[in-house]
Write a structure and sequence with these properties.
Blueprint: H1 2-5, E1 24-26, E2 39-41, E3 46-47, E4 51-57, E5 64-70, E6 73-80, E7 83-87, E8 94-100, E9 107-112, E10 123-131, E11 139-141, E12 144-150
Parallel strand pairs: 3-12
Antiparallel strand pairs: 1-12, 2-4, 4-9, 5-8, 5-10, 6-7, 10-11, 10-12
Length: about 150
């Protein structure tokens, strides 16, 4: 009877993909004049010494894109070149790109994760930006995302 009730020693474990706090989205995306905004796609965990795979979806074909990474969020966001920026802009901020989106308006990027043990468990904050002629000041932005850095496999 414990198995159907998911109770006792047979309780089903929660999968990482079911944990809403693992890759937690925050802030708002900045859409273009037609209401379309790019999306940041992150399924894999960030692991020490690895390369994290991220995707950008929903941008104009062949547009240039950037991914920004910071150690502090700006949950309320602030205006920057017509978009809402949800990263604090600390001295540790890094910007990767530009990278051209493909014909379908998507791109995959691999971001290096240093192998420093001091980063283990640290949450990092990410946001992507895409050139878009219909966007405010020619730019659109994804909502931001927070994710932890895990140990190497």
């Amino acid at each position: 009877p414990r198995v159907p009730a998911a109770a006792g020693p047979f309780a089903r474990p929660q999968l990482r993909s079911e944990d809403p706090g693992f890759h937690a989205r925050y802030g708002v995306a900045t859409p273009n004049a037609q209401g379309f905004a790019p999306q940041l796609v992150v399924d894999d965990p960030f692991r020490l010494g690895g390369a994290a795979r991220l995707g950008i979806a929903g941008g104009p074909p062949a547009a240039r894109s950037w991914i920004a990474v910071d150690l502090q969020p700006d949950a309320a966001g602030r205006a920057f070149r017509g978009v809402r920026l949800h990263l604090a802009g600390t001295p540790s901020r890094q910007i990767f790109g530009p990278q051209a989106l493909g014909p379908a308006g998507h791109a995959t990027a691999f971001l290096p994760v240093p192998s420093a043990a001091s980063l283990l468990g640290l949450r990092i904050y990410l946001q992507a930006f895409v050139e878009d002629a219909l966007g405010p000041a020619g730019l659109t932005a994804t909502a931001a995302l927070s994710t932890p850095i895990l140990s190497a496999e």
